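Researcher: Next sequence.
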Amino acid sequence: MGRPAVTFDHVSKKFRLGERYDSIRDLVPSLARRAMGGKPTLRKAEDFWAVKDVSFAVEPGQALGIIGPNGAGKSTTLKLLTRILKPTHGHCEVVGRVGALIEIAAGFHPDLTGRENIYLQGAIMGMRRVEITRHLDEIIEFAGVREFIDTQVKRYSSGMNARLGFAIAAHLEPDVLIIDEVLSVGDMSFQERCIRRMERFKRDGVAIVFVSHNLQAVGSLCDQALFIQGAPRYLGTAQDAIRSYIEFSASTEQIERNGKVTVVGAELRDAFGAPASIVSPGDELTLRTRITVREPIDDVTFGFMLYRSTDQLIVYEGNVLDRVIGFSGLNQTEAVVEFTFRANLTRGQYHVECYALHNPTHEYLSRLVPAALFTVTEEVTCRGVADLQLTAALAAPLGAGARAGLQAASIAAKG
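Model: Next structure:
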């Protein structure tokens, strides 16, 4: 394997928190407060490590997703890659022409038109005017701003700015594409076009670094992913990194209404009774939900909701009445309600919410989320959530006599 297109080698970035004046904009208000007798808002200066000892490499034709909570250092990492920021420690390098979109309208001159900003960005990327002109119509069409291309970009909406910014970054023949979460301001069709474009870039050998909270997009586009929270927490396959992030983020929440019935815990088991965390489509699973009853109560529904964890899509909800399973009237006891189902699901991460619902008032008596987490593994589907047990076969070709018979029948039907 040759030289990586993107190298991030033990990189750290430190900021200094406290009263510092890095610009006249910050200094003037402080001087005015002092002149009027106000006390300066002093605080002890502290060091803050936005990124701490992060390493990764991206080869040509690979995509790396960077995921994590807000404030985890994702955007700082991209700013280090694009040399907006300089690392405190470590070394980062990007080889070749870089197309970057890390902030809405970053690099745009607000008083220039969309057309003029296309030429400006191309010049910054080191392209000749004739090269930019060759891609101009394609950029305008992709961004969907033809009607406003000769309008100053300060009149653009955030969505128009994002569309134009991505179109420029993606159409001026980059060797490396660096994209931040700003794509989320685009509408659904534009986001889909962006993902398809990045998939094509991968096939053409472009290296991609992609920051997003859209874990489904990261899982489908990226070969590997980095989960960071200042320091790196996991670097590996996209699915494994996403699972690590979900497990880290999924703090169990227990909600009680009146304390009469409580969902105290749950566990997921496979068909052999063993704990289930990695499953295949169609596997039989049993969700064992532990219920505590402190006072007798009737007319309760017990159920669970299944979510795709990466986008909180509700995949399924199932429930059962207390009287159907002989639960009515139980007092001062702990019981187990079992739900058995088949995981007819495509690959991805899923989690379960369990609940007890009081039917007369339609209020939740107790909810537990996430009650269980599991991953479905398979390599057949392209997208979607339901496993339709697809099969395919090559049918025997029709002989010449059969084709002639079909053609004669077709002519007779039309006649």
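Model: Residues 318 and 366 are 16 Å apart (CA to CA). The mean pLDDT is 84.
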